[in-house]
Design a protein that fits this description.
Blueprint: E1 7-10, E2 13-16
């Protein structure tokens, strides 16, 4: 089974933003993706006509 779940990392714990409905003790594999501030102060400039 494969699903995309959004989560928040707070105080050392990754907290899902929705109910996972998984059996207790099940192991999962995580792939962490994020922008980590890469877009801070980022601007898109478009040519003016």
């Amino acid at each position: 089974m494969s699903r995309v779940i959004k989560a928040v990392y707070e105080k050392g714990v990754l907290r899902p933003l929705e109910k996972l409905d998984l059996p207790e003790g099940v192991r999962v594999r995580l792939r962490i993706e994020g922008i980590y501030g890469l877009l801070k102060d980022w601007r898109v400039e478009t040519p003016r006509s």
